[in-house]
Prior knowledge:
This protein has helices at residues 2-12, 18-38, 49-59, 89-92, 97-114, 118-146, 155-197, 202-242, and strands spanning 66-70, 77-79, 84-88. The chain is mainly alpha-helical. It has one domain (2-242).
Amino acid sequence: MFFSSAYWEYYLMGIILLPGILLALYAQIKVNNTFSKYSKIMSMRGVTGGEFARQMLREADLGHIQVVQTNGTLSDNYNHRTKTVALSAEVYSSSSVASLGVAAHEIGHTLQYKQGYLPVKLRTFLVPLTNIVSTMLWPLVFIGIFLGFGSATGGGIGDIFVWAGVIFFGFAVLFSLVTLPVEFDASRRAKKLLQDSGLVDEMEVESAQKVLNAAALTYVAALIIAVLNLLRFLLVVNNRRRD
């Protein structure tokens, strides 16, 4: 009965997430619309995202990093372990200002690692821990509930498991929090790369920046959702203890 009531209470408290969900939906729509708008505006020099990325890597003495095309829409990323900048087809082969902005952003990440940018080091450290946490979180909570979380008998052991789950929720918040400066800094570096490259003019840089600003909003939304999800869980835990 305790498990059932706790589950439904957690489910109903999902309304707390509504502001974050709405922001996430708005951010995703804004990203898609902004990218679509500026993907129709070609840069005057006609350099593609893939070509731009390779040139910037060479100039930064990072020619050992590969630039490859990957599947998916806006699936662009930099994998530090494999030393690979993966650009989606619409970025890799296009010379639009949107594509150049996204490509520059990923090169910004490579520069973060080269220069030892602390937040990106911390995020890299947290990635495997976050993966473990996401796998173990709910089993810990369920075990804690079955062991009598919040009850007079057996609650001590149950409490340990449930509060371990709370700490794991906190890891998700920490990861989202660390991600913010990493992504904002990569966009800052991207703007400087575009400006210094001589391959785009000032108006094109401003257009590319709008695409990056829209993408940054998605990370803000992710952090808000993580914080609200932690708050929801804490409220349920607190209510269960009172019962």
